[in-house]
Design goal:
There is one protein chain. With 634 residues, the protein is of the alpha/beta class. Helices cover 39% and strands 16% of the residues. The protein has 19 helices and 26 strands. A hairpin with a 2-residue loop joins strand 12 and strand 13. The model is unreliable at 104-116, 229-233 and 267-277 (pLDDT under 50).
Length: 634
């Protein structure tokens, strides 16, 4: 596809500033562009920290997959700034060969710790002009550039320092001319189908007047916890004395004595500790990190959620990490993620003693509590006729990929309205045709092996549709249970059975002496086929899962029955596109880095999407897959 995309990043830009200036005729270029473009709100990551957001923009995934949660990596012993080497998901800039990046739009911008009002509008505009001139010179020499990025960090700095002043309006007016110049140059230099995007990583708001210091608050919570534990110890002491008087001294029982001593040691440690950080909790702007802390995360989430100041909530959002992030690295960020309300400034200094105090600062504006950035998209691609008024920052990667005609990698969180489902639609029609053939041919002697895992879920979803559309009865549904699945897998299977009204027959199997788990499953399959007089069994295997399955056919004869493989030609990517497209519920383990599920003891996470899907499975079983399949394995 002969297309190009230019992205202008206005770091921290907000409609709160831009719209009034447009109405006042101060921004002629942005006013014209907004009228001619798709526009709306770009929703940031949580919390709205620059490194996390721009990395999500480039990768199309949330921090739980790319592993950048802020400026500093607090999970390392020696804390350090995140760098490009820490990104766990390949950004689009690695995929598109012809690109240019100026202004550190790599998602990992290191900002000076303090920003002072010594910086002037002239300084900021001079810096912006340098970036614009560098880009124009590059484009003049490389007119065939497909993907370009120019980030103006100066917007963020200007809003921090000049919020509510005429100087901020002056800055925006001059920046408007610079962006106009870059846009015009881009339009004149390239002959491709062009798309021009303006986007910001978060919004902005007036600085709060009240400061909430989290360390003294945490210390108070931990002190209350200590008092509760002290009360428990007093009760234990009284009960132990009563038993001792009755002739039973529990203190002499080994495991009771050990636990009592450990309890007392922890109690003394809590009593003598002065700060919350000594209890294994670290407060950061993105949330709370736990390091072997004894206090309950659920307890702190509940208390922070209910915390108020003068009748108003202190935090707008408080959630455990697994409710915010998805991916193999979700637990590498804060354990509790929060975002304060715009009326509250979060103070993470461990030396502060007052929980609430007046916030005194020379910085008039902040962005820590505003996830709403901006976007404008002006494109010559006629297929992109509309966009929602609110889109996630992770949606830009797949949209840009579709605009450029490049493939989208597996694992993307973002979605694109330009996604071409024609190939998937063909596979869906093929799958339904195979299922209908099997239903008509084998009738009551047809069964389906159902596990509730992603592939099995897709097959079951289409099978239900085929039966409903053709007024046919559902086949026998079998679940081979060897007792070693994840607890989440059992819970999901029961919930989807209830939701979809599936009559699942649980076939329990026990591993016999000198028998492997795989061999017991093969025996259970054959026993179930015989028990239910099945002539054919539908499974959810795919040819791309393992070399041993590549030569399979849609209808494959075995010694005792025929295997039906309706999604044989689906890929892992197809499966997830189907699940997202039809909004299917799925096992929550997939959100935390598991790509292929089996026994809980031998299944591990696979955070690297370049690795095979089954890289987290039992390696020994994978090595002998061909032999197992000859014996009757799926």
């Amino acid at each position: 596809m002969n297309s190009s995309v230019l992205v202008i990043g206005l770091d921290g830009a907000t409609w709160k500033v831009i719209d009034p200036l447009i109405k006042g005729n101060k921004l002629p270029f942005l006013a014209k562009l907004k009228k001619q473009s798709l526009s709306g709100i770009s929703q940031s990551t949580l919390p709205p920290l620059t490194p996390s957001v721009w990395t999500s923009f480039l990768t199309g995934v949330n921090p739980g997959k790319h592993a950048i949660f802020g400026f500093l990596n607090y999970r390392k012993e020696n804390q350090h700034f995140f760098t490009n080497a820490d990104i766990k998901f390949e950004p689009i800039t690695k995929q598109v060969k012809s690109y240019v990046s100026f202004g550190n739009l790599d998602g990992l911008i290191k900002i000076a710790g303090t920003q002072t009002q010594k910086i002037t509008v002239d300084d900021l505009i001079a810096s912006a002009k340098v970036k614009a001139d560098k880009f124009k010179k590059f484009l003049a020499k490389n007119p065939e550039t497909k993907l370009s990025f120019v980030l103006f960090k100066e917007v963020d700095v200007a809003q921090h320092l000049l919020w509510g002043t005429r100087q901020l309006a002056d800055f925006y007016q001059q920046l408007d001319g610079i962006v106009d110049d870059v846009y015009s140059y881009y339009q004149n230099q390239t002959r491709k189908q062009k798309t021009f995007i303006i986007v910001s990583d978060h919004g902005f708001h007036k600085a709060a007047k009240v400061q909430f210091s989290i360390y003294p608050w945490l210390t108070k919570q931990l002190a209350q916890t200590h008092e509760s534990r002290q009360l428990v110890w007093n009760i234990i002491h009284v009960v132990n004395k009563f038993l001792k008087d009755a002739g039973l001294d529990m203190g002499k029982v080994g495991f009771v004595k050990d636990r009592r001593n450990k309890f007392v040691d922890n109690l003394e440690k809590e009593r003598t500790s002065g700060l919350a950080k000594d209890f294994g909790i670290r407060a950061t702007f993105e949330g709370l990190y736990f390091y072997n802390s004894k206090i309950s995360k659920t307890l702190l989430v509940n208390r922070l959620t209910k915390l108020k100041y003068e009748g108003k909530a202190v935090f707008e959002i408080v959630k455990p990490a697994d409710k915010v992030y998805k991916g193999a690295f979700y637990d590498q960020g804060p354990d509790i993620v929060f975002m304060p309300s715009q009326d509250i400034h979060l103070n993470i200094s461990p030396i502060e003693t007052n929980i609430f105090s007046k916030y005194e600062t020379q910085i008039p504006a902040d962005h820590m509590s505003d996830i709403n950035g901006i976007y404008m998209m002006n494109t010559q691609n006629e297929k992109l006729a509309s966009l929602p008024t609110k889109i996630s920052i992770v949606d830009f990667r797949p949209i840009i990929s579709d605009l450029l005609g490049v493939s989208k990698p597996l694992g993307l969180d973002g979605v694109s309205p330009l996604t071409n489902y024609s190939l998937l639609d063909q596979k869906i029609l093929q799958t339904k045709a195979i299922l209908l053939t099997a239903l008509n041919k084998y009738k009551e002697h047809l069964g389906i092996a159902f596990t509730g895992r992603k592939d099995s879920l897709v097959v079951m979803h289409m099978l239900r549709q085929v039966c409903q559309e053709n007024k046919l009865n559902m086949p026998i549904i079998l679940f081979i249970d060897h007792g070693q699945h994840f607890a989440q897998s059992y819970m999901f299977l029961k919930s989807i059975a209830k939701k979809w009204k599936l009559n699942i027959i649980w076939e329990n199997t026990e591993i016999q002496r000198n028998e492997t788990l795989a061999e017991s499953k093969i025996r259970a399959i054959e026993d179930s086929v015989s028990k239910h007089s099945l002539v054919a069994l539908v499974t959810a295997i795919r040819a791309d899962e393992a070399p041993a399955r590549k030569k399979e056919t849609f209808f494959s004869d075995r010694k005792t029955h025929t295997r039906v493989h309706p999604i044989l030609k689906f890929s892992e990517y197809d499966v997830w596109e189907y699940i997202k497209r039809f909004n299917l519920p799925y096992n929550p383990l997939y959100d935390f880095g598991y790509r292929s599920l089996e026994e809980r003891k031998t299944t591990t996470k696979v955070g690297d999407y370049k690795k095979p899907e089954r890289a987290g499975r039992d390696k020994q079983k994978e090595k002998v897959m061909q032999s197992l399949r000859k014996l009757g394995y799926f």
